[in-house]
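Please review the protein record below. Let me know how this chain folds according to its tokens.
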Amino acid sequence: MISRGERVANYVILSVFAAFALFPIVTILSAALGPADSGETSGLGNFAAAWEVGHFGTYLRSSLAVSAFVVVVSVVLSIMSGYAFGTMRFRGQSVLFYLFMLGIMMPSEAVAVPLYFDLRSLGLIDTFWSVALPQVALSVAFGTFWMRAYFRASSRAIVEAARIDGASTWRILWRVLVPPARPAVVTLTVLVFMWTWNEFLIPLIMVTSESLRTAPLGLAFFQGQYTSGFTLLAAGSVIVATPVVVFYLFLQRHFVRGLLQGAVRE
């Protein structure tokens, strides 16, 4: 039984951490809604000015296309590879799994330069694929680890019952195991979307065309080329961050449930 004093202390500590986390957000929002440095706009007009001057429409479309592709491909590949590593036994399984784990342990900064030369030799530099494919590879590494943990803890009785009924391996995966795994899949989807949307280094190195710049990269160019004032930069930051916040809020319940399920597994 928690005493009244302990409950009050918990609320005080949580309130302090909440204030610490919310302070930067409130600061950016208040700056974005305040009068512009030039004095020409204020309030919501700052967002319209930043949108027009910074070409954020182009950058958001590019980020949305890259994120959608990376999320769909990464999640599908992660489900299949996680199922293989979590439920099957085959020669070289451990070695191959730890090879996948190198994708988690190896930072993108370490492979960015050799990756650039590899993609340049294939003629893929300054294309959509030079931004999307490396992020698919990085995301599948974590996704395989995440889904493997889920499938290893899944009910063996359900799988065996499906096999007795004559279900194929493919059918067991998509019709038996994936539907109950929706919280884990949604959590993986949210994480991959956030990582892909916020990725800065790979687009910076791989593309030069303005039409291929992602939102974080476009925000950096907006800061350096178009404005030196903080107000429009804050408005641009809010524009870039809004899709991630909306996406998270839309899937928040499943995201938290997936994290809690992962906490009690491996």
